[in-house]
Amino acid sequence: MTERLLSTLQGSDGDNETGDMTMSEKVYYDRIEDAIERNRPRIAELRQRLEAAGVKYVLSSWIDLHGIPKTKPVPMSDLEDLCLGKGPQFAVHSISFVPELTPADSDQIMVPDLDAVYICPWDNTLAIIFADLFWEGAPYNVCPRQTLKRIIQQSRDKGYVGFAGIEPEFIAMRYDDAGRPVKAIDDDPVEGARPRRQAFGYDVEYSLESMPFLGDMIDILEGLGWNLHDVVAEGAYSQFELDFHYSHLLEMADRFVFLRILLKEVAKKHGMFITFMPKPTVGDWRSGAHINLSLQATDRPNENLFKDGSGWSAESRYAVGGLMAHAEAITAVTCATVNSYNGLVPRVGGFEGGTVTWAPTNITYGHNNRSAQFRLPQSRYCIENRAADMTMNIYLALAMTLAAAVEGIEKKTDPGDPTDRDLYQMNDEEFSELGIRRLPRTLFSAIEALKADSLARDILGPVMLNSYIAYKNDEWERYHQAVTDWEVQEYLRLY
Description:
Structural class: alpha+beta
Shape: globular
Strand content: 15-25%
Radius of gyration: 23 Å
């Protein structure tokens, strides 16, 4: 909903003001020895920094297939061994859906990335360091963070560096006296008169009521140096969005994961919990996480490749073309759950705020058109993918996004004319005439597209791709084994 990802976010010049990564720095290592040697000269400085902050325990964290961080905490006395790849090892294949390995296979070795160190603001005795997995001396082929680093390296070798801003949305919940989950900030009666039009979105009263929690989040994000632009009381009750400055893709992915941890920990201190489920109820606005991508050329640092003079460049059009060519496969990653697709619809009856969802429904692009999957915003030179939510594995999502955009530029993929019309008002005949595809309506449809996408196979590799598809097929089958309340109400007495 918010517009204030500002012109500073991938704005007029596209400056990169954040992160330690330079245009020429190597980020992906084919050998574990090289990754370890990168760490060696930096360990003493890191120890001094962490000890000065009061850190006693380190959680070096790798990312699983779902984008969820995993760890084994170690004391600060083990920091050097940890940084040199001598810390805890993991049988990743024992807890992740990666059936290509067996109990007889080697464990994975974790090498922390010393550019990705986060001292936990809710408890400064803890530090989280994001890490990469290696297996038998090489990058583990089911490590999503390694996948993103590989695609970043490949794109950089072709002359492109990617940056992203993300618009994370979530709902704050609590348990009532009966132990039922309810909206944390919602003073309207469960039964009886509730406002028909959205009372929560942008509302001053609800924003004030939310400030004990939001104020803590604002202070923390400002303290982390993420350059928070604003927070938004969104359309659903107790739904919020936090918008902070863009960064290079690896740092943004790490920040996205750390933010999900941070939100949950701060919420606990206020007697709440956070859900990233896109659609908890029929009446809720969908919680999304729009991806805003921009590119720079390695030979033209600090220039936004999507801007040409006072308008959009040819490269921006080709990048959109590449994204549209692989849109269904990208959506299988950016909208990763059965529930995600309940939000990618044009209208909802009983909606808090009218009937139109403002969610993307079709694979096309437009200038500031929020009903399209891809938007070229009026306030910044980046490509916004609106078909993304907080359940995505952000590392795989950004890897797919970057690779598709670069492919589009290299192949000069024509996206066609923009669709600057309300897609909710158009019919199937008009879509067919204009060649506009519908976004996948279900997780199953998206996964079928992912199976057939050659770029996805190159990015994820056959092992990770097959594991992801196998898990999502299992998720789909288990969903269809459940009998929902809607089915009971619809069919129990009808037939």
